[in-house]
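Changelog note: in this version the structure field was regenerated for every chain. One regenerated record is shown below for reference.
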Amino acid sequence: MFVFLVTSDTFLKVRPSKLAELAEDEKLLIPVKSVLKVISYTEEKEYYRIILKNSINGKDTWFVRKEYIEISDYLSYYYENANIGSIFVGNDNIESYADFRSDFGGIEVEEVIKRLKAQLQETPAIQERSLQPVDITKDLVDCSVFSPASVTPDDMFLVQVFVHLPEQIEFAKQNAQQFDPDAKQLGARSLGLPIKRGSELTFNLSIPKLEVDDPIQKLSWNGRADSIQFGVSVPADITQKTVIGTVTVSQNTIPLGHLKFKLSIIPSVSSTSKDSQLVGEVARHYRKAFVSYSSKDRIEVLKRVQGLAVSGITVFQDILNLEPGDRWEQELYRNIDECDLFLLFWSTAAKESPWVLKEVLYALERQGSDGLRSPEIIPVIIEGPPLVPPPPELQDLHFNDKLLYLMATFK
């Protein structure tokens, strides 16, 4: 017999299919730290096909993803945890050390160890290889945004941002709707970021024309679905029918990616007539950044952009990338075309630089009239407070003095 230790919230399935294709009685959410007693198992690609000692919902054969499981032999697990007990899925009570001894006829632990060693020598090689512990220091983390389907002028609502493993999306949906019954999932795609457990993630929500209470929030990723909530107010005199919201995700002050969503603003009498909409490639993991700045700020900027390379983001910066003889202006515009992140390092010198203005106006033109195309423009404030006011041409950009800390000096 084997013990499967669940390392992150995941699902048992009756077959290795997408969760959306399974009936409710064909899938079961298994919380982290649960334990499964398994008679036998086989490997099938990214899954283990397991036969449980105790059936669940009348079924004893299930599938579970390998990366969310650690495997131990039955005896070793009990020997290490005899004094604390463990919760077993499918049982209502905590099985104690006394229960463990009764499973083996009340014989002493030392005798069971001897028998188990003999038993393990007969275990097939394929299972022996599977007993190696799973490396769970990093997870491929998804982000999902939940909000009411529509809002009205002079309304207040919640935007919930969840970080979770791909298998935990149903868990995130259930939790979002428990907190807010009107919450709908606004994102269908995810950032897919490999995040080390214990890392702090920062989320910045901006929605033009709407007021976000406490727009920058943080949480630590620990392998379980978790969320933050933003309170948002809609002005009574708003005239827009739709607005585009952007959630920027950062780690160690470095922006990693963003999620965009389109929200309908409709009169109260028709508040249920429209749903919030997905908008193309709403989720994006940043791969290449263009750094726009005044040459007078070069030393201050260089201190900060070092962190981008550590996060796996390719950086284009004129002093680093332009070779002698390059057609300078053409090469700048070509690199803006190729980037998905445009970092505007803002200061008095940047405001007075005609080239900085040219670069950011070109990036704005690349975004299109709806602002949904690349690059994502993020002002990084390196002077103040008080904030250096942007020129009229840049009034639509989201300048916020809280972004002073978005990219701290890399240490």
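Spot check on this record: The chain is about 20% helix and 35% strand. The two ends are 50 Å apart (CA to CA).
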